[in-house]
Structure formats: C-alpha cells, structure tokens
Amino acid sequence: MSDTRWLDAGEQGTWRALVSVLGRLNEQLDRQLQRDTGIPLTYYEILVRLSETPGRELRMSELAEQSEYSRSRLSHAVSKLEKLGWVRRKSCPTDKRGQLAELTDEGMASLVAAAPGHVTEVRKLVFDPLTAREVQQLGELCDKLRVSWGDSPCDSPCPETTQ
Amino acid sequence: MSDTRWLDAGEQGTWRALVSVLGRLNEQLDRQLQRDTGIPLTYYEILVRLSETPGRELRMSELAEQSEYSRSRLSHAVSKLEKLGWVRRKSCPTDKRGQLAELTDEGMASLVAAAPGHVTEVRKLVFDPLTAREVQQLGELCDKLRVSWGDSPCDSPCPETTQ
DNA sequence: CCCGCTTAGTTGAACTCTCAACCAGGAGAC
DNA sequence: GTCTCCTGGTTGAGAGTTCAACTAAGCGGG
User: Fold this and answer.
1) Rounded distance, CA A133 to CA A62, Å?
2) Are B147 and B153 contacting, i.e. CB atoms less than 8 angstroms apart?
3) Which of A59, A121, A53, A117 is nearest to A90 (CA)?
4) Are B155 and A13 in contact (CB under 8 A)?
5) Tell me, in Å, how far CA of A63 is from C1' of C2?
6) Which of B15, B45, B155 lies nearest to residue A13, judging by beta carbons?
7) Please, where are the H alpha helices in chain A?
8) pLDDT tens, position by position, A88-117
9) Contacts with B22 (C-beta within 8 Å, 6 or more apart), sequence order
10) pLDDT tens, residue by residue, B62-106
C-alpha cells in the first residue's frame, strides 16, 4: 500500500484549482439563489427537472436518477417543497409502491421568477469569463470524465433510451 | 429584467456536464474518505493545510482563507477536530484576539494513514481518465475562472505575498 | 398460496453548514 | 484615558444531507 502514486507539482496545482472552482461555484450559486428567492440550489434543480417533463410530473425514482440525488435526499427535499406548496405528491396508478411528484402552478411560478437571476449568475461566473472555444473544451472534459465513470455524455443528443 | 440571455443547447449541455461532475466528484471523494477513515473531506482539507505549514500551526483566519471556508465553518470544524484529538487550539502570543490551530501528532498520523486512499481515489476519478494534455487544459480553465473571480491562480508559483 | 428476494419510498438520528448575533481585543481620534 | 469602529473568533439555531433501518408492494419459484 506504500506504492501510492502521489500527485506531482503540476497535478497538485490542477487539483487545487479544480477543488477551488467546485467549492466557489456551488457556494456562489447557492447563495445567490437563496438570497434572491429563498430556494436552495438543490431544490431549484428538482423544480427544473419537473418543469421539463411533459405533464410536469415524474416518478420519485426517475427524478432521483435524473438529478443524481439519493432517494433519501429527494424524499426529504420533496417533503419540503410540498410544504411550500410547489410540488404535490400523487400515488402512481400503475405501481402501488410508486409516488409521482408533480410541479404545482405555484411551483412553476416560483421557478419562472427565480430562473433569470440564476441564469445570469451562471453566465457571470462561467460563460462570460471563457471564450466559446474554452466553454466547448470544458464541456468535453466534463463529459469525458462522466463517460469514464460509466455515465452517458450530457452534450450529445437525448440519451433517453439505450436501444 | 425579461431580457435574460438564456443558455443555448450547447451551453446547457456544458452546464449540465459541469454540475454533474461537481456533484459526483464531491460525493465520491467524501464517501471514500468517510468510509475508509471517518474523516469528512472538508476536515481532511484542513489537516492537509496545517500539515504543510512549518510548525504545523496556523492562525484561524489564515487557515480559513487558505481553505476557502467561512470563519464560522472553520471554527465548528476545528472544534470537532479538537474533540478527536487531531488539532489543538493555542492562543496567539502577538494578538490576544487570535487563535492558533496546531496539528497534533495523532492528527498527523491520521492524515498520513488517510492520504494514500484519497490520492488513489483522486487519480482514479480525475487524472487517470484524462491525458496529460487534457489535465493541463483542465487546470488552465479552472485557473482562468478563478482569476476572473479575483483569485490568484493555483498553478503558478506560491502566491504568498503580493509584494 | 406462501416464502423469500428485490424494488420504491419514507423516516429519524447524527452530522455539517449557514446565518446572524455576539464578545473581546486592537487601533485611531479626540 | 475613553469613545468609536473594525477585526478575530465563537456560538446557537435552523436547514440540508447522509446513513441505516424500516414498511409496503411487486416478483418469482415451489
């Protein structure tokens, strides 16, 4: 176990930069959203996913997978969103174990109100500082990492089914 | 306010990929550390910073700045690390308001024990899947973002003082 | 039909993080 | 000296996340 391949100076630098970007990005985005709308970033993500689905409803498990949250986390989150009146739980007609999460009109309204500020912040932090070429590079690098982890790329056309 | 510059399809893809990478990376690294050593990733970071300082001690404010944590967060974290016996608080001789955090021998030992597994995980997740060229690109992109946010780059030689 | 295995989802406790309020000591003006 | 402002750091409450334990329902074999 003592034959660890440590990071050399260059790798250290890259790693620190990456960790720093990770941290600051999350912090900034969450702070902006929380301050201006009261919605934590992670809940915003859920609202977005629901809003993009036809019928604005999704099985809990589907929603969890799409947003890459644990079932537990999602369950807690949806409970909170339900208390806020932004999401409604409905039992699934085809599987009695299942639950559907449905975005309410109030939830949609809150999302619509929050979106511009959030997108503006994203642009300010990530897209504006980089050239188009660099943005593309960044996307490709991230996708390559994701693929190496066994996920499907985000850029390519709708990865709905595997057929 | 309605003239928001929304993300086009390509930007959406890049953004989703980035968010996904952010999330998974944090989750995986934290889980590995927590599982194998019981140390949360954020506390590990603190131990690393202390271990790299001559004398293995640092002012709370210095430590907070280096690790990019809020003072409050750091204070809570150091309290926890103190309970574990890995860090000791000492009052600062030159400024009675100040506190020093000092890494204990036990803390150093825990860090030494935890490091190989962590570095291996980092390699597995980030460095192995990418070519040397891509790693360099990634570092440059992250540094460019950091600089645009007013931080100093991570790759370049020690940004200790501004003189 | 019933037993065991798996999947869907929830729950509660323990832990971390954030935010705002707070105390104490330094630093300059008068 | 003392008044005021600023800086260093801590604290407690509230909120989100994780983990493990749990319920309920589908699924398959005997």
Assistant:
1) 34
2) yes
3) A59
4) yes
5) 34
6) B155
7) 9-37, 41-52, 60-67, 71-83, 105-122, 132-148
8) 999 999 999 999 999 999 999 999 999 999
9) A22, A25, A26
10) 999 999 999 999 999 999 999 999 999 999 999 999 999 999 999
